[in-house]
Write a structure and sequence with these properties.
The structure holds 2 protein chains of 2 kinds. Chain A is mostly helical. In chain A, about 75% of the residues lie in helices and about 0% in strands. Chain B is of the alpha/beta class. In chain B, strand 1 and strand 2 form a beta hairpin. The chains are: A mainly alpha, B alpha/beta.
Chain lengths: ~350, ~500
Amino acid sequence: MQAVEKKLSKQHTTQEKVIGFLYKYGAIGLLAIIILYFSSISSAFFSYGNFTDILRSISIVTLLALGVTFTLVVDGFDLSVGSTMSLSTVFTASLMVWYDLPLWLVLLLPLVIGVLVGLFNSFLIVIIGIPDLLATLSMMYIVAGLHRTYTEGYSIYNYMPLTSGGTASGEMSSAFLWIGQGHLLGLPVPVWIMLAVVSVAYVVLQHTRWGRVFYMTGGNPEAATLSGVNVKKVKTIAYIVSGTLASMAGILFTARVGSGQIDAGAPLLMEAVAAVFVGYAVLGAGRPNVLGTFFGAAVIGILLNGLTIQNLPYYAFDIIKGGVLVAALAVTYVYAKRRFAKT
Amino acid sequence: MGGQLLEMQAITKGFGPVKALDGAAFTLERGEIHALLGVNGAGKSTLIKVLSGVYPQDAGSIWLDGTELALNSPKAAKKNGIYCVYQEVDTALIADLSVAENILLDSFAAAGPLFVSKRKIRSRAREVLSRLQSEHIDVEQKVSQLSLADKQLVLIARALVHSAKIIIFDEPTAPLSVHEADKLFSVIRSLSAQGVGCIFISHRLPEVFELCSRITVMRDGRHVAGFLTAQAEQQEVVEAMLGRALSRELQHVEHAVRDTLLTVENLSDTRKLKEISFTAASGEVVGIVGLVGAGKSELAKALFGAAEQVSGKISLGGQPLRLKHSADAIKSGIALIPEERRKEGLFVHESLEANASFPNLRKFSGRLFMNKVEEQRFAHLIIDKLKVKTSDTTTPLTHLSGGNQQKVAIGKWMSLDSRLYLFDEPTKGVDIGAKVDIFHLIRELAESGKSCLYFTSEIQEALGISDRILVMCDGRIVKELTREQATQERILLYASGGEEAV
């Protein structure tokens, strides 16, 4: 009887070890397999040019995903980042095309909008007490509606005809377009911006006092309160960071495309969320983390890039994105269930 | 009344090496109200859980109406007419359903017709409630809108629907007001008149004497004494609960008590605390003793700025405090070791290091960046000083035992050099070895001039560690006892709302 139990427990531990190993290195292994596969079937894939392309293509979604990461760290969830980015996109474009404002204001005012969205989110969550997911879901619709109303449903481009008659006076300056289209030291400017934001976010969350407060607040808000943390304030800051990063993504998108596309952010929301949850599984972190999020965005970017080279039609991309999200969630929750069952 | 209804013989139940029940026995007659008493850990709850089918017994037998029962599930117990009204009524009720639906829940949850006639359910529910003289409850109302006392009545009604033979009341009066409790007693009396056997568990002696005809006292998992209430004295029941020849576990060392540090005047909140005033000096351990629900945790939280709507004055070292948030209390030099360690005291999925440094992060960071070397050094300091049994400061705390977790919950305040320590049930769920370590630590803190408040419902612990004892009952401090005056009997008497005959 005892021998049987012993055997069972031994089996159990080897099984657990395999799962633990997969959890820790599975995501990295998967990425390696994807890269190897695409490299083997296409010579165009494994090249410096293509990799900088991939990095540039993920730069915007990475900014969004980092915002979501911050809110998830404090045990929230910001679903409004996509809409906030859309709003910021058309707002940025309008500042130049409609109002001819100087560059510094064009870069600053959209960020203010992001801060305001973050403040309003946290007002709903912290003061009124609506659950994070529902509050930001509502905000997602409100902000999306705002940005369409603002442009009366049109995208914004240079010298566009105005509904009030005549044409818009301004145009996008080349300095502004350089932010989205230029190169610096062999890499596209958006890639530099992404790397800078990733580094700052990484250092803040992993190595500073603030990062510690963020994680602890998310881990156990009651204990954090009894340790002297103002949980409401911390959550508010997380949503402001999220709104601001979404606005940055919007500015970047406008500069990249050269016009204020309507609904630019909406399709990127789920991609950003998927990136964050893939990040949970990187090196067994088991929680939202900056490097994981970056890695997750890269996995999705590489997958889409490879499939584009394979001529997969773009309208099938959502299947891939959704599939990646499901896989990441499955791994995270299966592992969490096992871990909590033990304790 | 009417002969033997239930007999439990030589019931034994172990959890690992610990024997919660060791040959326990209990009998109940038809229509009797029988009190089951004992201090915390005496085995009352385990016995009740065996009877209601939650735990199967390891040995022993249960007889109902002369037939032996095998109660291997709560369902089996209910089938035999054994029902339990737990203290946490909300876990047994479905808040969003109506009173009538809750009362008849079992009958349509299990089997029966597919379509349920609401009219029939309502009239059946009304009928049962009228047997409880509780017609005032509207059967169409949602249960979530009822008062706690009425929720209990719904649970009792549910038992009656199934012609319960035995109803167990597990500390039903703890959350009730005096008036509500009186109402409940008259319901219990009418149940007994209808022939239902009632088992009544309570920490409050006066109500036991008022309501019950017999008393069974348990200690260390055994039946130790039985009384007919009419012929028993409160004092002798208390002595039976405690066991006469109990010695003090901890040797007390006299030491100098210094100046008054904490002064509390007329502290009240809107829910529990009523006009609490006391003082505590540097170098002193003050035991604040009360039964479950007496308001100890509420008081601890209020002193830590973690409660709402508190009025009254608190001053520390002569300085009046305005505690709006725990952060204010921490800044003033107050530390709280909360009762719900895993929920309120610790971040169990984080490492020992991260937990230890958290209340005082500034000390472990330069301007901004965490100094992980310093953090680790402090973690090791706690491990050494508090004898935490772990080799690794980076694994999550879930892997540590309760006692070791508690040591971390205490140790994390050591980087702050607090002046006043509030310990709320610090030995709950802690093994005896760690307990002794914690006691020594508290005494050391006191000897180094700190002031310690020790909130507990374990009278013996309070006696062992305190210089002075304040007894709480129903949100008030009802008695202050010096070390010399304090005995278990006196404390228990005051804590259960009793008075000494002078």
